[in-house]
Automatic annotation (TrEMBL):
Keyword Lyase in annotation: no
Protein name listed in UniProt: Flavin oxidoreductase
Segments traversing the membrane: none
Keyword Oxidoreductase in record: yes
Keywords, alphabetical: Oxidoreductase
Listed Gene3D superfamilies: Electron Transport, Fmn-binding Protein, Chain A
Flavin reductase like domain sequence ranges: 18-159
Amino acid sequence: MTNFTPSPDHAAAFRAALGLFTTGVTIVTAKSARGPLAMTVNSFTSVSLDPPLILWCPAKVSARHDAFVTAEHFAIHLLCDDQVDIARRFAHQGEDFSGLSCREDFHGVPVIEPCLARFDCTTERIVDAGDHSIVLGHVHRVTAHEGRPLTFHAGRFGGFGDAP
């Protein structure tokens, strides 16, 4: 058992404890001045059904942060359990879409196909949140498929057992 008060001295332990929460894995894409851009994200959640709102949180230290928080439109892609390679690719860099089935939507946002679900969004608001920003998005279109989700737990990718 570990017990501590979160502080800069315990940053690694705090991060490890947060990593015990199993999350889904998403790719966020946007059009930027540099061209199509993507980022692997597990800080994604639903906010409201009416109006349809979601949020995600890019780290301010990311070289891609500013491009995403200034983007008017973006897409959130929920990944399938066989898309670990895509998650790893966009965790390290965000401009190499080679070999992917990808197209631009009517806002110029790159969309990756297939994926478990995609939420096409307009940026509603950016909120400062410590070493991250909270990007609140208004969902204007959803595309969903059947499949098994890609998950992330304790620093490792995995699946979700017997999901449909």
